[in-house]
Amino acid sequence: QLQLVESGGGLVQPGGSLRLSCAASGFTLDYYAIGWFRQAPGKEREGISCISSSGGSTNFASSVKGRFTISRDNAKNTVYLQMNSLKPEDTAVYYCAADRVCTVYPALYDYWGQGTQVTVSS
Fold first, then answer.
1. How distant, in Å, are the alpha carbons of 38, 48, 81, 112 from that of 17?
2. pLDDT grade, residue 1 (50/70/90)?
């Protein structure tokens, strides 16, 4: 069974950092691009970053560019989202998803994790 599991969320103060992990089970991530998305209450799901299967190509939404980085360790079957300089508006449930193409459009992704809550508050 193909499964993605996010972890690393939590409560952090403004200006702080968190690293989210997206671990795959039941399949290898080697051939998949991974996207990170977030959804705040009452808002649509927003694509914030993606990384190609090789890791050679990445993409970031303007709202997180310069603050977030994405990386992958195919040997560990895991993708990471490093979030720095966090702001209260970054508060949301964060999801990872797998597909063949690196894109920040959620409708194009077939496989999703269950999400992890990130709360940025003092």
1. 16, 16, 11, 24
2. confident
